[in-house]
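Archive entry. Fields below.
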Amino acid sequence: MEHARITSLQVAEKAGVSQSAVSRVFTPGASASAKTIAKVRKAAEELGYRPNRVARTMITGKSRIIGLVVAYLENQFYPQALEHLSNALQAKGYHVLVFTATNSPEKVEEVMRDLLDFQVDGIITASVAVTSDLTVRCNAAGIPVVMFNRGQDGADVNAVTSDNVNGGRKVAEFLLKCGHTHIAHISGWEGSSTGRDRRQGFVEGLETHGYRPLQIIDGMYNRDTAAQATHDLMTAPTPPDAIFVGNDHMAFAVMDTLRYGLGLKIPQDVAIVGFDDVPLAAWPSYDLTTVRQPLNRMVEATVEMMIAQIDEGVVAPRRVAFDGPLIRRSSTRQAKGHKT
Amino acid sequence: MEHARITSLQVAEKAGVSQSAVSRVFTPGASASAKTIAKVRKAAEELGYRPNRVARTMITGKSRIIGLVVAYLENQFYPQALEHLSNALQAKGYHVLVFTATNSPEKVEEVMRDLLDFQVDGIITASVAVTSDLTVRCNAAGIPVVMFNRGQDGADVNAVTSDNVNGGRKVAEFLLKCGHTHIAHISGWEGSSTGRDRRQGFVEGLETHGYRPLQIIDGMYNRDTAAQATHDLMTAPTPPDAIFVGNDHMAFAVMDTLRYGLGLKIPQDVAIVGFDDVPLAAWPSYDLTTVRQPLNRMVEATVEMMIAQIDEGVVAPRRVAFDGPLIRRSSTRQAKGHKT
DNA sequence: AACCGCTTTGCATACGAATGCAAGTAAATC
DNA sequence: GATTTACTTGCATTCGTATGCAAAGCGGTT
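PREDICTED_STRUCTURE:
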């Protein structure tokens, strides 16, 4: 009992017009008389006709599909981003084809090839490093690429991030204002622009006031690595009295290690600051002071850049960085002279 | 400098064969001589040819795209499922087109229509209720539907879940064994099969031993609702000494409310059991006793069912439920007579 | 050499909608 | 009413690949 698909031709016959007429009724911008439109709409309605997107894609070359490459979804920031991106794109008539890719260049390479096969109209990479060679090839193929939450040095790529350097600086200044002097940093993966930028801003922020980080350890955006780093920091001869952690995801592991592994109090023994402000950060168990990434604005900008490029062709790449506020919660002490 | 796509015709010319020959080389199961294959492969390699999936889809009617309908990604269980499903399908040459849908029937309806437009080969719904009317239409259109982590009463649908009834029963027995007598249940949404089944198993489990639940409140799979319910339960004249919460996501809110809102100790004042065993449940801050949903097996079964249906046509619907173990952690007391 | 069976190959067509072109029609202008 | 102008419409073609069909090739057998 296969319910065969209705084609534009069948609608045309029923409406007593040509197939072209039907097509034009369903093609925004094409011209058709009010009478024709009415006839076609009626026939289409009765038959339950819906234009075939695949056939449409063949002709126009536009699939209205955006490829989204994402590394892993354990860090709550990514599901959140995925959900928002998907919704925002859906609202514009686009849909999201998800690809997971580890951060190995070969894997990314393979994924990108797949993506091109699908005739995606654009590619969004969420925190996945892409070789500039690859983006060049995509641009050559006329496929816009926007990197979400990851930049790329010296390459011509569209990138939307928060202002990570400034965020790092804010953390440094805030912790100094709280009276901390021994501040360590468990950084985001040094292979990522976000990790490097946050670190850089943080170090600059301390230096501006004549301080230096007690120690910096690469946490690799990994819970286990961060936990180990915490352990190492706290058992060293001079333990820190505050730790800036490269993202919330690691910060939670750090807090767990401090509390349940080392029996320390937050913020009395050590203050913790994270980065991202994922929903979990606001839950009472963690109540983590953190730099908020303005997800909504980042998503908006990403979608807007993407669609502009699709509609108007690949243009000069832009980089946008949104400033995000520091959200003070109870994982840090009250700043001096700061009122409740 | 648009890098035009290479077509099979160009490869054919370069290799000195017909377009059909090229097609056959790239179509598994088609016949071609070793010599032809070699010539075509070489030419294709040199030109960088890759078959156009869209054109392929037009002819074969197979897109090798699976639509995944998901409600929300805040509950960590879903990103996890999404990631695993996507990987498993990718390994089989399929890709995932993500749709978000709230649980309103109209929205789901609209999403499903969109999905059909994309010629998806199959649809997986993750914890989204689908009217049986809709699944019937999909089957009529020859599109298999598999419901992941949600069943449907009296309808002919493929469904993969864990054994929720049995899971609920296990929780009841475990809590009784721990010596609890006043056991409340903040249930999963009563509009979902998972919520109902867990509740049913739980009640049955208590009744088998001559007990009844102290109270049952629908937590709607929502943190705020669960928090409010916790408050109501604990401030009632007879508060519970244990609460079974319909999923981990709500259980975290319950624990936060108990500890930080009401100043109670877990498990001394109240024991908590969840359902799912998301990664967060194992983090020391929660360390939640919970029923594990065997995600890997569920994903495997889902993918296997899906692909079987795609390859062999829509067959008699199956329902699979995997038993999951109760994972004992510190949110509950030691069971009587149970050794460390 | 003739015959059979099996594999390989090219030709032509189909999938379903969009669109350039030319013909047709209605409205607007003088 | 003639002519210009703007808008509609249908015809035919196109996108890139898969596939039924018939012709051709090949290997072996008698």
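CURATOR_NOTE: Chain B is about 45% helix and 15% strand.
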